[in-house]
Amino acid sequence: MMSLPKKPQRRALLIVLDSVGVGAMPDAPSYNDPPNCFTLGNVAEVCQGLSMPHMASLGLGHIAEISGVEAVPSPTAAYGKMAEKAPGKDTTTGHWEMAGAILEEPLALFPEGFSQEILDAFAAATGRGVLGNLSASGTVIIEELGPQQQETGDWIVYTSADSVFQIAAHEEVIPLEELYRACTIARKLLDPYRVGRVIARPYVGSPGAYARTANRKDFATLPPSETILQRLDSAGVSVTGVGKIGNIYSEQGIRQSFPTKDNVEGMETTFRLLREQEEGLIFVNLVDFDSKFGHRNDPKGYGRALEIFDEYLGKLLLMLREDDLLVITADHGCDPTVPGTDHSREYVPLLAQHSSLAGGTSLGTRSTFADIAQSLATFWGLPAMNVGTSFLPTTSQQSQTRSS
For a designed S-S bond to 114, which of 88, 118, 166, 296 qualifies (C-beta 3.0 to 4.6 A apart)? Predict the structure, then answer.
């Protein structure tokens, strides 16, 4: 019997630099963002230039003017930027859109806090009372209410400019497993209210010296439609999530998840997966830019984190096979140099490297993050997604490119 030809192995790596925006979108003012919000550029200015030679080699300097990042003459990747089509500027909607699921109606926001009806139901179901219930910075509200929580054992509940129900608890007062159970309860209670995420925010320490731990966990509502992750999984292509990817998509379409405590562990995990996995999609979220520096108005810390990522990127590029697809992007902005601590409505960078894409190709300004999902469908030869335009040639064209 004649054996069928072996299906070629394909591997893609999608890295999301959480909150690394590249300039305000035209509708930024309607999201209460100043027209000069520009996370990457403003961070670079405060740091008097960034040293990111490997991102520069891919073409980052051609996307926007960034102090210290050269627009190299011959980039190795294709480059551009993407606008978000969905309403919002948060992690959930940004990640959903890049996976091909575009939110039509905004998720609900609670700038004045949650209704008493919601809080009463949550307290009754969990057996603990509620403190806070306002829009606040997580580190600030923990400092303010931490002593009271340690005394009463109640939950600290707060929100932000995003669609989030955040629950903070001291790990020595409320065990992690109980906090996670409470988040699961809240997730079910809040589904009818269109809340994007419930977030566990554990912390430790004592008054004046509280610190959030790496045991954060997100409980997201389901995407509004099928994602490329589900389509890949149905086609037998494994999807592995690194960081909070599994949480964002409620594990839908994801075969393996590897939560991480910081960017360094995220990159080390990515290196291990590249050594172990010959095929499939490795989908990485690096959250430190957003959680540790953007929301905390720390541009210098943000800049150092970018430079450390670039050092890891240099090692990563040496690990890629010639036919691997590498895509680097972001999900929104979080400019630490402008007033406030919330996300910013910004364009996000797009760097794509593959043997079918000529280095230095301009991908222009894409009208939706969903172009990533469509490109992944093209890469694996799957039926087209309902939204988005691929920046990759078809699989047959890719084969012609490799053989020429």
Answer: 118
